[in-house]
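Morning run. Coffee first, then this:
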Amino acid sequence: MAADTSKPLFPAAPHTSLLPSHGNPNRVSPEASYWRNFRSSELVTGSNYPVTHLTFSPAHAKPTLAAVCFSTVQLFTGDPLAPRPKISVTKDFVYSPSFRSDGALLAAGDIKGVVRVFRVDKPTSGPLRTLRAHSAETRVVRYPVAGGDKIHLITAGDDALLAYWDVPSETPVFTIPAAHRDYIRAGAPSPADHNLFVTGSYDHSVKLWDARTGKAPSLSFSNGAPVESVLFLPSGGLLATAGGNMVKIWDVIGGGRLVHSVESHVKTVMALALGKMGTTGETRLLSAGSDGYVKSFDYGELKITHSMRYPKQLLSVACSPCGTVLVAGSSKGDIFVRRRKKATEEEEQGGRKVVSGVFDWTSPKPEKQALKPSYYRYFSRGQNEKPKQGDFVIERPKKVKIAEHDKLLRKFRHKDALVSALAKNNPRSVVAVMEELVARRKLVRCIGNLDVDELGFLLEFLHRNATLPRYARLLLGVANKVLEMRVEDIRSDGKLRGYIRNLKRMVVEEIQIQHTLQGIQGMISPMLALASR
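And here it is:
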């Protein structure tokens, strides 16, 4: 029967199930997808002065932003943010606006050290209260955020003065002069207790204060660099600090223990903020640096999850409480806004989400497989971990490299050990091997077992080192023993006789030197005896 030639013997293309499965190279993580879903825009400030501080109101239903531009505090409200009337604080620079916990009042400091409190709903009506205690720039103004405290205010500045105010009476509850040894440029209230707050200074120190005790800090530790910003994490037990190009996480409850440090920026980190992810409800630590980057840090897993690039140097950053608006202030007066896109359609279809008619194929984060004692990784875990501050490190003993003659001695190959040491031509090692052979009572036997070439190595070594004061006592005795035991071999070999002549000449020269030294000693001894009377 003839074969059917209309069909090829092998298929032209393999079946799709036989092809190797490759992951999508363009697939991004859910975290990156979240931050990339923000639309970029810019707020018009009408000023070229640096935007040193940004803060959102914690209580308003719609995002309410306060931004410092030179002598005014500009308010923006709504989604998208729309400008409101400005708060004219002073005729000079303004710093550190802070909303009260209910969002009704806003306080800000100025370059002369005066702190003013304004109503947010009536920004043009003038200050309600004026607080005067500082003699220099007031760079830290903070309302407590826990416990619904509405009457107290924390201020600090370049005069290193720390003040805790009773706002209605315009009087300080207490003041601490020289709270730090340099400018105080950072401060934050605790989200767990309205009596606790922290300050950071250019003297590299971070101090935790308790308003109930007042004068002395409850905790103090060094950040290792000038502190630009401090921020409590939501639990209140962890504290984030920014200094230099590093962000560090500290355990406040554990006495200021360093938990983690991340060097993610190229230049100085200027500001820290907390950002809430609207999809999962998780909180991320945001850091803005003068390198033009905003970094998102997952402090639960201790890793950077996303980076956002801006065209100018950044001095401030803030995120709305609902997590839909992210703002960053530049050194040239720009306020960059990123607003999360609103999903027109979101449906769950077998684990896939449809957002704006486009499928999001990002898979959930795979669960880590539990380690079992039957796995190799179970026994090798933790070997690459770096020690943390305060850990007791047990160093692995260094491997000692054993010389060849020591290995031979361990194997009781005494003659080979002596020959190996002679071949290295190291007097210290040769003498050590000889002393070990003397202790084992094997040196005489080794000398008797040496062949002519090996005996030549020994005589050459004796010629070079027998007259050295350090080794003379042992080596001259060895030379005498060689002459007694191997006299026949020496007479029959001209090369060995040459070594003996050289050795004899060296001994004669050494004896002459000793006679000369004895004569000199005889001349000096009477002179020393007379001098000592």
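The mean pLDDT is 86. Good start to the day.
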